[in-house]
């Protein structure tokens, strides 16, 4: 059955809104099996459904300010990334491609991205550090080059993405998401999502660097009322990795996937390149009981393929 599910997942990355009868024919299975497989995908958290005989992708639903993603798995595998700053001359699409290939191999269920998908045009002199200087150039760069994957990505906008919005009201993340069904845009700066019963908050933030890498994350956690605290808090913006656990909340400060820029060097900012691989385990009622993480660092790795 797992093999058939994998086949269907791969098939659905290549075909747009296929008819059930065509899927059954192409995969050499019965139509009722296709209905069953789509139900299994839904239970695993994939946002597919069948309408009028066609398999369609659906958007996550927001209820009471929280995106709801159905999932009944006993183990949810996540890849946490941030600050890809795409269209910068210093972006690392090679690492991103490596990570998505690895995520597929590891059976990761979701990739979560905590903002600064694009580099924007935020500070003076930044145009000399860009591969694309225009809104449409950066938008199309991401639509074309961001790795296409059967693993869905949920992301928020960071302060660099929001530069366009502040200047002229254009939401580059929304525009990108509208053209890429595997990239689900949740909103700007801070959004909550619930995968099954696992509560996650994605947050970007703004402002300069702090005197210690843990400072902003600690202060931010303190600002969240106890009853609102998620199981996983993922933050971006600082370009430095850090982990801590307080109460039930596992806090992941996710660094960047961009080489140090001339601007960062001149400002004396530090810059880690890394990601978090996270496994969340549920009890038989679906409540999160254990969260484990592993940091993968790229500072000394030259992938470039
Ligand atoms: Fe950033």
How would you describe this structure to a colleague?
With 305 residues, the chain is α/β, with parallel strands linked by helices. Helices cover 29% and strands 27% of the residues. It has 9 helices and 15 strands. It has helices at 2-14, 20-27, 31-43, 93-106, 135-145, 162-168, 172-179, 215-223, 262-267; strands spanning 48-51, 54-57, 61-63, 66-69, 75-81, 110-113, 153-157, 183-188, 190-195, 198-203, 232-235, 242-246, 249-253, 274-282, 288-297. It has a 7-stranded mixed β-sheet with strand order 3-4-9-10-11-13-12, with no helix packed on it. Strands 8-7-6-5-14-15 form a 6-stranded mixed β-sheet, covered by helices on one side. β9 (190-195) and β10 form a beta hairpin. α2 packs across α3 (31-43) and α5 packs parallel to α7 (172-179). The two termini are 34 Å apart. The model has no long low-confidence stretch (mean pLDDT 92). It binds fe (ii) ion. Fe (ii) ion binds at residues 83, 85, 116, 158, 160, 237, 239, 256.
């Amino acid at each position: 059955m797992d093999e058939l599910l994998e086949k269907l997942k791969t098939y659905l990355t290549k075909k747009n809104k296929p008819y059930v009868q065509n899927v059954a024919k192409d995969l050499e299975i019965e139509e009722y099996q296709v209905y069953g497989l789509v139900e299994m995908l839904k239970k695993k958290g994939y946002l597919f459904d069948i309408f009028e005989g066609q398999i369609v992708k659906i958007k996550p639903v927001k209820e009471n300010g929280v995106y709801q993603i159905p999932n009944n798995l006993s183990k949810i595998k996540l890849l946490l990334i941030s600050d890809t700053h795409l269209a910068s001359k210093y972006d690392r699409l090679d690492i991103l491609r490596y990570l998505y290939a690895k995520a597929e191999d590891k059976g990761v269920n979701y990739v979560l991205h905590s903002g600064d998908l694009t580099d924007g045009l935020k500070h003076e002199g930044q145009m000399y550090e860009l591969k694309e200087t225009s809104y449409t150039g950066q938008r199309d760069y991401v639509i074309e080059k961001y790795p296409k994957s059967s693993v869905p990505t949920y992301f928020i906008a960071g302060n660099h993405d929001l530069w366009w919005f502040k200047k002229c009201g254009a939401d580059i993340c929304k525009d990108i998401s509208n053209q890429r069904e595997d990239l689900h845009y949740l909103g700007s700066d801070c959004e909550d999502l619930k995968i099954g019963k696992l509560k996650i908050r994605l947050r970007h933030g703004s402002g300069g660097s702090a005197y210690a890498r843990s400072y902003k994350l600690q202060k931010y956690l303190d600002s969240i009322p106890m009853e609102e605290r998620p199981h996983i808090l993922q933050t971006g913006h600082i370009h430095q990795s850090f982990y801590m656990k307080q109460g039930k909340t596992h806090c992941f400060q996710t660094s960047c996937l961009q080489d140090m820029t001339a601007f960062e060097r001149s400002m004396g900012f530090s810059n880690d390149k890394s990601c978090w691989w996270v496994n969340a385990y549920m009890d038989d009622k679906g409540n999160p009981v254990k969260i484990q993480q592993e940091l993968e660092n790229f500072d000394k790795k030259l992938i470039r393929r």
